[in-house]
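Today's session is about reading a structure prediction critically. Students often jump straight to the picture, but the first step is always the sequence itself: look for stretches that repeat, for charged clusters, for runs of hydrophobic residues. Only then move on to the predicted structure, which in these notes is written as discrete structure tokens rather than atom positions. Here is the chain we will use throughout the hour.
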Amino acid sequence: MGKGGSKLLRRSVLMLVTVSALVAAAAAAAGTNLSLVGYSIPTAVFPKLITAYQATPAGKDVNFSTSFAASEVQSKAVAAGLPADVVNFSIETDMDRLVQSKLVDKTWANNKYHGIVSKSVVVFVLRNGNPKHIKTWDDLVKPGVGVVFPNPFSSGGARWDVMAAYGAMLREHKTPKQARAYLAQLFRHNVSQDTSGRNALNTFLSGRGDVLLDYESDAKLAQSQGKPVFYLIPKATLQIETPLAAVNGSNKAEAQKFVNWLYTPAAQTIWAQNGFRPVDSTILKKYKAQFPPRPQLFKIGFVGGWDKVNTQFFDPTNGIVAKIEQGLGVSTGG
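Below is the predicted structure for this chain, in token form.
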């Protein structure tokens, strides 16, 4: 090759390197766009978490779009094609759906927290002054008491509510048959079955019902916003555990970085400051005054675990709750 050819080759290589550098710079400037799809309750905390993450080196050029709705609705939407890079659901069942669809790796729960990013407990949200003097699970089925909780065939939160009620009866040394009978009574006292926990809270705040079954974190949020409510934790109640995972796709690496960051002390502190029980025991200890332990707190395993519970109680055709709902003329989607 002559001198002229060599110069031309060098110019071509230089131009290619320059163009590649410009493309890389433009890509870096554009950053990564992550789509976060979550259940309805953490609507208020994720913007704070996202802002804090974007202030870190890893999150500097990461932008987010978010979607929050009922857990099962969100899970089914992602399985059907709704774009998602990070998912946070109410119950593990909704994560399992994405594992089966190969959108989430089977190893999603292989960290020290078993894939659970925050916790809560089922509480009674009550009117100021508690005019109906509601203190126990038995009080919910007294004459004239109206109870609000979402439809368990769209809301993961409602399933936590229902199993909290069932498990509380077992804690009272009732038989499973008696506990099921209590659920039938409880559903007859339900005055509104909204699609999600957040919609149920709004229904309660609008004036319907005497008590709302809800997440402790949601009750704390309502109080922080000056809503005229207070809440109590019943003697026996269920620990809520919400799963988190990165979704397979072109943004998986960046999504996993965000997922990992949500377990850091900085992120867990934000969860705690916004009413969620942190999974980091050190952070939980710092906020123990806000999250008092309950002597009769139980986990989903106490009532059989989600695999058994979903078949026995929430099968949309033959489940115990489906039969109760069908008797009341409420849709179960089955």
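Discussion point for the tutorial: The chain has two domains: 32-118+241-286, 120-239+293-328.
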